[in-house]
Specification:
- With about 230 residues, this protein is of the alpha/beta class.
- Helices cover about 35% and strands about 15% of the residues.
- The protein has 8 helices and 6 strands.
- A 6-stranded parallel sheet has the order 2-1-3-4-5-6, sandwiched between helices.
- The longest helix is centred in the first third of the chain and has 15 residues.
Length: about 230
């Protein structure tokens, strides 16, 4: 008796964040591969090139390496999630399955704002149309899951701690949960109304990339369109 081969899962494109390389997505890629996904770690120049250039290069890579009739899933960390949003808005010919963003500042980044004002070279061309909160809206047909972290570890917390102190001294201080962050990105910055699901996990901004529970939630969303609860 012949057994049917298991159905091949959608190809997943993993996109790293600012100041990173494709290799930082390797642990997550390996866990998705173990679940049966075919993965590709897309690399781009986060400092030298802007979001439009980087999403255009992703489109070019797909034109060479992927058939447009086959759907793709997209997973992006931080700035990589904003590239996903620009890409799906600018290149609607691709069949997008599901998308997951990890620690992505969909509403713009307070941390990046401070750095941009002090030393703009540190964020390079990734600030305009991306980290400044002006990235293209998410198309209605795209199913997006958002993972945010609440462990405040990382260099960005120096700016966010200062910002939190300033906010607490304001006329209308925000609630403590509104000041929670992953060391680089506020939880509130990760929220986007058009997302299908949003989950907060006990991880830092970079730590989420090697966390097995984050990988499991990513896998689950790619397969079910919602997070496991």
């Amino acid at each position: 008796m012949q057994h049917k081969a298991p159905k091949q899962k959608t190809r997943v494109i993993l996109i790293h964040g600012l100041h990173q390389t494709p290799w930082i997505m390797r642990p997550l890629a390996k866990r998705l591969q173990a679940a049966g996904f075919d993965t590709h770690q897309y690399g781009y120049r986060s400092m030298r090139d802007g979001i439009k250039t980087n999403s255009a290069r992703l489109n070019s890579w797909l034109e060479t390496n992927h058939h447009p009739d086959h759907p793709i899933d997209l997973v992006g960390h931080s700035l990589g999630g904003l590239i996903i949003r620009d890409f799906v808005a600018q290149y609607p010919k691709w069949k997008i399955g599901r998308c997951v963003t990890l620690g992505t500042p969909h509403r713009g980044s307070v941390c990046a704002d401070y750095i941009w004002r002090l030393t703009p070279a540190v964020v390079g061309r990734s600030y305009v149309d991306a980290l400044d909160g002006t990235v293209a809206p998410l198309p209605k047909h795209v199913t997006l899951g958002v993972i945010a972290g609440n462990r405040p570890y990382g260099l960005g917390q120096l700016f966010l701690q200062y910002h939190n102190r300033k906010m607490r001294k304001s006329d209308k201080p925000p609630l403590n949960e509104q000041l929670a962050h992953d060391g680089t990105v506020y939880i509130e910055e990760t929220r986007i109304e058009s997302a299908a699901d949003h989950i907060i996990m006990p991880v830092s901004h970079t730590g989420m990339l090697v966390n097995p529970e984050v990988a499991e939630q990513t896998r689950y969303f790619l397969e079910h369109g919602r997070f496991k609860r």
